[in-house]
Design a protein that fits this description.
heterodimer, A: mainly alpha, two-stranded antiparallel sheet, globular, B: 10 helices
Chain lengths: 172, 176
């Protein structure tokens, strides 16, 4: 692995961690209050990130600087995995990335959560053949293909829901 | 320099920065942020210390792990970066707080560190199990595939919010 690659990962990771911490999503209370529908910080950050991200990729697309990534995966696995993920995330109070950021801000309960996550990965490895055969290989789908004007509409909708939800974010 | 010393930013600033970061990361190094696969590599590395033959024959670990050198992966350093970045953030804002039991947890389950640590362990384990079925977590699946507009990404997001809301109302309804 090249040194430049390592440095880029550390740099982009640091920016990500810095922004997560500044955005307060590295806080247990903010995550759990999102699911209690009392604080919409998590949703606002995700919606803005997605809207800006779509706009970014849409803007660079005509210049052919890089190919746009293509991903294909099972919709069934996304539904089941997402449901299990949501239960775990609510009990732990962080997601994998924000949990690591929370450790940096001094939330030491994350150490136990990280050991739990490693264990969860190890347990999944045991069940992988079952899930691969019955879930992960079913209902594979890729990118939602839509005309440009619809994509722009999606960005506009995301950017207009976000400020409404923003009103429900806790201020401090 | 002043804004870097603020304790927090409005959610929309943070969201815009993250969206932009995904674009720049792909454009410059052809990577998209992600976290959960790192925990699979860590699990494989730990098992490799004790049962190397089992790891060698595991179809799942073989996808991501072929010896300890696999830990030297772009995403591993990205995750280390998250820790560094968050530390820099609290260093600049002076908001570093050693905390064992978050206040909302305390209100619902008491101030026992052991109970919280068990809860965090179980929660973390369930979360990663779900992430590996779906093939990613909030960063690598929900946001990344939300941007790429995949069916699975948006289904994952809706499913995660739905189950998170139900779980939160069951677990934390006493006080919030």
């Amino acid at each position: 692995m090249e040194i430049l690659s390592i440095l880029s990962a550390l740099l982009f990771g640091s920016i990500f961690g810095f922004v997560l911490q500044k955005g307060k999503v590295s806080k247990f209370n903010v995550i759990v209050r999102q699911f209690l529908l009392k604080d919409f910080t998590v949703a606002v950050i995700m919606l803005y990130a997605i809207a800006i991200g779509i706009s970014f990729f849409y803007t660079i697309k005509p210049y052919n600087l890089v190919d746009i990534p293509v991903r294909e995966s099972s919709m069934l696995a996304a539904a089941i995995g997402g449901a299990i993920f949501g239960i775990g995330m609510t009990i732990f109070g962080y997601c994998p990335g924000t949990g690591v950021a929370a450790l940096g801000q001094g939330s030491l309960d994350v150490i136990s959560g990280i050991l739990g996550m490693i264990t969860g990965a190890a347990v999944f490895e045991i069940f992988y053949p079952f899930f691969e055969a019955n879930v992960m290989s079913k209902y594979i789908a890729g990118v939602i293909v839509m005309p440009n004007y619809l994509l722009i509409l999606v960005v506009v909708i995301l950017l207009s829901i976000a400020p409404v939800l923003n009103g429900f974010c806790s201020k401090n | 320099m002043n804004i870097f010393k603020k304790v927090s930013w409005p959610a929309r600033w943070a969201g815009m920065c993250i969206g932009f970061l995904y674009g720049v990361t792909w454009l410059t190094v052809k990577q998209l942020p992600g976290t959960s696969t790192t925990f699979v590599r860590l699990a494989a590395a730990i098992e490799n210390l004790f049962v190397p033959n089992y790891v060698k024959n595991s179809a799942y670990f073989n996808k991501y792990f072929s010896g300890f050198v696999s830990l030297l992966n772009w995403q591993t350093f990205f995750v280390i970066g998250i820790l560094i970045g968050a530390s820099i953030s609290v260093f600049l804002s002076g908001d570093f707080k050693k905390e064992y039991v978050p206040s909302l947890w305390k209100d619902n389950f008491g101030s026992s560190k052991i109970v919280r640590f068990i809860g965090a362990f179980i929660g973390g384990a369930i979360m990663l199990f779900g992430a590996r079925i779906a093939g990613g977590c909030t960063s690598g699946k929900a946001i990344a595939e939300g941007i790429l507009m995949t069916y699975s990404g948006w289904i994952f997001m809706c499913s995660l919010f739905a189950s998170g809301i139900v779980t939160a109302f069951l677990f934390y309804r006493r006080k919030s």
